[in-house]
Structure formats: structure tokens, C-alpha cells
Amino acid sequence: MKGIADLRVKIFADGADVATIRRLAAQPYVRGFTTNPTLMHKAGVDDYRSFARAVLAAVPDRPVSFEVLSDDFPAMDVEAREIASWGRHVYVKVPVTNTAGRPSYDVIRALSQSGVQVNVTAILTLDQVRRTVCALEGGAPAQISVFAGRIADTGRDPVPTMREAAAIMAGTPQIELIWASPRELLNVFQADEAGCHIITVTSDLMQKFPIIGKDLDEFSLETVRMFFDDARKAGLVL
């Protein structure tokens, strides 16, 4: 079985806690970082620029994605250009549509063609992948975040979608495919086999890395012992 070091897919840490980002920046297998407004809200971030400065101080040499906040396309463009100015490794997350469902492809194209490194986010369909690739073609290095975990949440297998997305992007080497929002450790290996360039992984999921390839008989015994010990701790009797 492959270990983390054997995988082609790059591990990007997903989160917004600065202390955790500093800790993960010391891990050689973490090749980049992603954030989003929901993670920032959960982490208690209330000053975007200060947060970004702290993150980029901790991660000066790897890709980091920060998201625009506006729902208006002209304002998205202005915000994206400011965010891009924060550092040479910065990617700007732009949602594939606004909250009214209007596609963002025109602003994505304008940003990419002007040299902004864009990470198009919240993608769930292959049609969105195709149209995003068209918008990014011939532009700056870019990323496409397909939310495979949310696809799985609907009861659909995301692997065929991710394989097809990788095939759609095969002729555009400056664009990388991200398996976003994984739900379990297995997704890291699925992303690798599907041809994804990157998978975003939370620190909680990374805590399971040490058990990759663990002997299943040993794991079974540990599970039995856990149940036995917890029953005693709870004082359960029959």
C-alpha cells in the first residue's frame, strides 16, 4: 500500500487557525494551504488583512489560497487584485457563481488573463469544470476546486467526476485540479488514482496519517480493547 510520500497528489492543508498553519508548515508533506470565509469564521478571524499577513509570514514559500468576499462581480475583481498583491504564491479563490447563481466566468477570465493566479471554487459539475477551463485557458497558473466531498454527501460517487475533470484539464498544464472537501482518509488515495493534482486536507484528517497501512488484525485488537476499557470506565455492568 502507498504511503503519503509515494503519492503523486499534493497535500494542501485546509484551515484558518494560524497556530495550526504554523505547525503544519513544518511538515514536508504539506505542499500548500487553503482557507475560506467559513473556516475563518469558525476560527474567529475578524481582520482579513492581518490574518493573511500572519499566514503568509508562516508560509512564505508555498501556494496559499484566500477568497474574495464580495457577491458583486466588479467588486470581486477589485478584491481579487488586492489579494493577489499580498504575495507571489497567493491564489485568489473566486466562486464559480455569485449567490444569485450568475456564472463568474467573465471575471475569472479577466483576472487570469491579467496574471492573477485564480482558484475557482465551489465547483460540483463537469459543465462548470469545462466552462472554467475555457475561462482560464491561456492565462496565469490556476486551480479548479471540485468539491468532491459535497458530491459524496448527495449519495453520488465523486470518483468518476474527478477522473473526467482530470481528463478535461489534460490539455491545460497550467491548471491544477483540486479534490476539495474530503470526508475520509480514503479520499486522499482516490484523489491520487483519479489524477487530481491536489487534495485539501484538514488538520483533523491529517491526524489519521500515522495509521495508513496499519495491520488490520492489530487494529481489530485495539478496537476490542477500546470497547472493553470504555465499558469499565463508564461503570457498565449486567
Write the layout of secondary structure elements.
Elements: E1 10-14, H1 18-25, E2 30-34, H2 37-42, H3 48-58, E3 64-67, H4 73-84, E4 90-95, H5 105-113, E5 118-123, H6 126-136, E6 142-146, H7 148-153, H8 158-168, E7 175-179, H9 186-194, E8 198-202, H10 203-206, H11 216-234
Parallel strand pairs: 1-2, 1-8, 2-3, 3-4, 4-5, 5-6, 6-7, 7-8
Helix pairs in contact: 1-3, 4-5, 5-6, 6-8, 8-9
Report on this model:
This protein has 238 residues and is an alpha/beta fold. It has a single domain, classed as TIM Barrel, CATH 3.20.20.70. Helix content is 45%, strand content 17%. The chain has 11 helices and 8 strands. Strands 1-2-3-4-5-6-7-8 form an 8-stranded parallel barrel, surrounded by 7 helices. The longest helix is centred in the C-terminal third of the chain and has 19 residues, at 216-234. The chain is globular. It starts with 9 loop residues before the first strand and ends with a helix.
Entry summary:
Helix content is 45%, strand content 17%. The protein is of the alpha/beta class. It has a single domain, classed as TIM Barrel (Alpha-Beta Barrel), CATH 3.20.20.
Largest sheet: 8 strands, parallel, barrel
Tally of DSSP helical segments: 11
Query: Approximately how much beta-strand content do the residues carry?
Result: 15-25%
CATH third-level topology: TIM Barrel
Global geometry: globular
Quote the average pLDDT: 97
Gap between N and C termini: 42 Å
Radius of gyration: 20 Å
Q: Which stretches are poorly predicted, pLDDT < 50 over at least 5 residues?
A: none
Q: SS-based structural class?
A: alpha/beta
Strand order of the largest sheet: 1-2-3-4-5-6-7-8
Quantity of strands, as a count: 8
Helix content: 40-55%
At CATH level 2, the architecture is Alpha-Beta Barrel
Number of domains: 1
